[in-house]
Design a protein that fits this description.
Blueprint: H1 2-22, H2 32-39, H3 54-64, H4 69-93, H5 98-109, H6 113-116, H7 123-143, H8 146-162, H9 166-178, H10 189-211, H11 215-226, H12 233-243, H13 248-260, H14 269-283, H15 296-307, H16 313-333, H17 343-348, H18 350-355, H19 371-374, H20 379-391, E1 399-403, H21 406-415, E2 423-424, E3 441-446, H22 451-459, E4 464-470, E5 482-487, H23 493-507
Parallel strand pairs: 1-2, 1-3
Antiparallel strand pairs: 3-5, 4-5
Amino acid sequence: MKAKDTILLLLLVLAKFILQYTLIDGAYDLHRDEYLHLDQANHLAWGYHSVPPFTSWISLVIKFLGNGVFWVKFFPALFGALTLMVVWRSIKYLGGDLRAKLLGGFGVLFSVLLRLNTLYQPNSFDVLCWTLVSYFLIRYLKDEQPKYLYALAIVLAFGFLNKYNMAFLMLGLLPALLLSPQRTIFLRRELYLAGGLALLLVAPNLIWQYQNGFPVLHHMNELASTQLINVNRLTFLSTQPLFFTGSLFVIVAGLWSLWFYKPFNKFRSLFWLMIIVLTLYTYLKAKDYYAIGLYPIYIAVGSVYISRWFRQRWGQMAYAFLLASPIFYFVYTYDVLYPNKTPEYIMTNQSRYKEMGLLRWEDGKDHELPQDFADMLGWQELAQKLDAVHSHLDNQPSTLVLCDNYGQAGAVNFYGRQGIRAVSFNADYVNWFELEKPYTQLVRVISASVVEEEFRETAQYFNVAYVADSIANSYAREYGASICVFQDTDVNINEVIRQEVEERQLSRKW
């Protein structure tokens, strides 16, 4: 039986990797966020403007492996596969049989994680860490062995070093334990030793934040004023069931069992954890996907609870329905939820995308393509056209390539020729200028919405100024972004840039 379990788990993991690589159509490039994360490998630090350092470590590994798209997509798929394995392991520990494991495995495999794990962002590892924290909490509450508490602390620390979203899990976990029968944990020495271990591991990032004026607080304030302001609290709650729709009944059963099923009384803190975290997110108007990491462990708990009915005839029929439900939902959403259809297909089939709310962007408005899809177009075109423009310039080493945003700069650096290192005043690029180089000419990538204004403002300081090319892909979010060349100036470009960098860096300190 153990060999059969292992074989089935490996088949699920294999299916996970195959799906992740086949759910992206060749029409799409990498996502704008992926370029920034990959470029962090060239600027290692204990922190960045919007994220902690963990992603840069993975980016360094990807760089050593050749920086190919295969490896860029491999790691989020790996973290998704590991999440599935943790759920499988949790079911085994809670006493679930093979049918319960398959129910949990299918629930995790055919879920929103298939979309989340298509992108190289901190979110995939974030979900894995949330699931591991819950797993080690279950192990500690049942066995009361300090090693599981220390393991939990290590996962919390690495989760925090990956994404500050982990702080909400911490904020939910402490009161959840206080509200449960296991509140005596606060009288135990190992809890505070584990807390000290976690604090020690995250200390380098906290020190970096302090030394740099806590830019994360500025980023959160900026996020709240530009994106979260468009989040509706009711919309946040209404979208939560959509992440694991195929396993919704299993999740509800898991929550029910944590309160009413006697063998799970020791784990009641998990019930309060979901209530508290969702309440926090709702109050703060968080993005809906921040909470995805909550759910996998409840799929595990619910699968074990439901499995006790499987031996009855009606239970076998119910099991077949519950097992197939995630697959049915995957098939139903296959054409719309994933970037496996070309932009042309989406444009002619917009009704389904609109019905599912996929056309709504962070600005609160509906657009022609889902935002993530539009953010995966036009980047190679930009890099190729900038390469062509740059190759015809004299004094190429003295040319500063300045972009409007991190996606443009990251794409140029990822796809562009050796020797071109684009920068921007946006995101972390403001810290990556090489001002020791004497710049005599400027190539600007200017976003379409401000190209006329920015071109006129910059051109007045140069004797030669012209628009060399622009992004022609009308489906790209960067459509119309222009490559502008500015030459022959008496202005000290380095000094102007240095002053702007200092002002931008100062403005990001809390």
